[in-house]
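so im writing up the methods section and need the tRNA N6-adenosine threonylcarbamoyltransferase record in one place, dumping it here so i stop losing it
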Amino acid sequence: MKKPVYILGIESSCDDTSASVICDAKVLSNVVANQEVHSKYGGVVPELASRAHQQNIVPVVQQALEQANVTKEQLAGIAFTKGPGLMGSLLVGTSFAKSLALGLQIPLLDVNHMQAHILAHFIKDDESKIPTFPFICLTISGGHTQIVKVINHFEMEILGETIDDAVGEAFDKSAKILGLPYPGGPFIDKYAKLGNPKAYKFTKPKVGDLDFSFSGLKTGILYFIQKQQRINPNFVEENLNDICASIQFTIIEILMNKLKNAVKKTGIKQIAIAGGVSANSEIRNRLQLAEKHFGWKTYIPKFEYTTDNAAMIAITGYLKFLNNDFANADVTAKARLKVTE
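--- predicted struct ---
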């Protein structure tokens, strides 16, 4: 009988410290320590993030092993996020993973965070659908917005990407303009459910067929709110649900139009989403509707695999392990890393 392969994944690219143990593509544990410290600053403070990772990493890894009921000695390899991300945060995870792999004398597996968001779709659980190649993945998060053609596990091609800001930032900055707490994306989603998406019209940016731009939209929303508040200082409070619904409708329309263009261009009708913004209820609804309307086959990740988590790092490490694609001890963290690298 084949010996089970246990992989420990470590994720520390931004402000969440996470560790996960998987066994042959099945998640046994996925522990995430959120850093509350950033909410009062309205964004992630890199220096505070790396300090919090240093405090969290040992207990989080310990908890992941205990929850999985696995000892360190049973591990076959250690996967960690090499990049992209905040350099100070990445260094904590990289150093820890290297030391642990060296101490246990087991392989080290360096993982591209952006590839991991996409490869989270290959985690096996009872209700998961695994995409078949080739498929298109819309990767949407606070730092990235891109359409990726996934040819196989480790061969990907960027078809289009944002030329300025990421979609997650557009949600968070819009929320900030409305006086909502950070991170604001989930709040816009919550209030949008109660509002009229056609109440206010925002101009969609004009860029290439498969590229995105959100900076003009953010400015448009800011000017709109400022103008309305000059007329009625209580405009936001009185119309919050409608404003959120209209902002969300505009952003999701932009994403869906680009996906339709990608399907037209490639002829590929297998569509996946990945990244933090894929937790948004409206993009999930629209994709399910697209299955009926356009005959697409859509793959929507479970909520716990949308935001930064170590299960996606562990599954990517597992796939690399099967390929004997190991990292050297001199591997370094990279703050900037393309999904194709």
